[in-house]
Automatic annotation (TrEMBL):
Role summary: Catalyzes the isomerization between 2-isopropylmalate and 3-isopropylmalate, via the formation of 2-isopropylmaleate.
GO molecular function per UniProt: 3-isopropylmalate dehydratase activity; isomerase activity
This protein's name: 3-isopropylmalate dehydratase small subunit
Top EC group: lyase
Family per record: Belongs to the LeuD family. LeuD type 1 subfamily.
Length: 197
């Protein structure tokens, strides 16, 4: 995984509550066996009309939000089924950070395991970000080390994060990478164990 510390980008304002994993990545796109390639299908039924043409009213199809690495949404983001494809699709599309007042627990944990920083801000703070971002594309800076979100309109919000997940993201570690940090200890234990067999 790529380390995350500072992410500075325009953000995509997705002013919707209860965005579930089937809306993030619909079931018909789950046939792939790789962890990559899902980004093209993220929010597919919102991004495209029934004829397959882009829905010009959907935020991700608007040129002003092109290349956004930060997604801002409403309550209960990532609810529904526990499919890990949802964070895979979000990351593959290019989002490194998702900001919302609340997340479904499994989706929240899957974000950390796949190198995405999920940030909980208050409902009022998310409402302000959404309103400003819908009015005009805005750039913000997320600083994981400082645990801040700094806007271009003079506001700085702070967020909490579990120190374990913070360390993982700052170092770009998944759980396997974390295990390898103790490789010398594991090797010493194995060698000691062999002596007693």
């Amino acid at each position: 995984m790529e380390p995350i510390n500072i992410v500075k980008s325009v953000y995509a304002p997705l002013d919707r509550k209860n965005v579930d994993t089937d809306q993030i990545i619909s079931k018909e796109f789950l046939k792939r066996i790789e962890r990559t390639g899902f980004g093209q299908f993220v929010f597919y039924h919102w991004r495209f009309n029934e004829n397959g043409q882009p829905n010009e009213d959907f935020v991700l199809n608007k040129p002003a939000y092109s290349g956004a690495e930060i997604l801002v949404a409403q309550d209960n983001f990532g609810c529904g089924s526990s499919r890990e494809h949802a964070p895979w699709a979000i990351l593959d599309y290019g989002f490194r950070v998702v900001i919302a007042p609340s997340f479904a627990d499994i989706f929240h944990n899957n974000c950390f395991k796949n190198g995405i920083l999920p940030i909980r801000l208050t409902e009022a703070e998310c409402d302000e970000l959404l309103a400003k971002g819908i009015e005009q594309a805005q750039e913000i800076e997320v600083n994981l080390e400082a645990q801040t979100v700094t806007t271009g309109y003079g506001k700085t919000y702070t967020f909490n994060i579990d120190p374990y997940y913070k360390k993982m993201l700052l170092n770009g570690w998944d759980e396997i990478s974390l295990t390898f940090q103790y490789e010398d200890h594991i090797k010493a234990y194995e060698e000691k164990r062999l002596v007693f067999e």
